[in-house]
Amino acid sequence: MEGPQPEDADGFRDAWAETQQRWAATIERATALDEELLHQRVDGEWSFVQTLRHLLFVTDSWVSRGVLGERSPWHPLDLPPTRMTRVTGLAEADVRADLAEVLALRRERARTVDGVMASLSDEVLDEERRCIGAGHPKAGLWPVRRCLTAQVNEEWRHRDYAERDLARLTPPG
User: Fold this and answer.
1) Which of 106, 119, 134, 162 is deepest in the core (most CB within 10 A)?
2) Can you give the pTM of this predicted structure?
């Protein structure tokens, strides 16, 4: 299923709400499994926990840095895309992170995005925000619309990947 393509503030709010509903069901499914399974990679892709760590990075980058202007918002457990070197001080992908800690961080990040979405207007979507210093997205001006599109699409796609991998990790029946 293709991800949402919101065009206005209401569309972004709806897309965000839908991605979070989809993730709630996926997280419920995942937490019913043995946590050890959630640290297993499937076909060389990230594990479930690593996927959640990547989404921490996505929110810290596109919302906290891109929209809210924080210079260096990343948590050490954030997981950038493979081979990205613009952000220093992050744990390696294979560092084992506790699922409960990652889920707590994820809830914090969701509240940040909820706040942005609550105050979002069509005019704000057309504004540009400046990123300063090294990091992701790179320094420069970034349209709020571009930042929030990245946030929603990353959430949508990685939830689909997580569901695909959970299906492979879950025993039949």
Assistant:
1) 162
2) 0.95
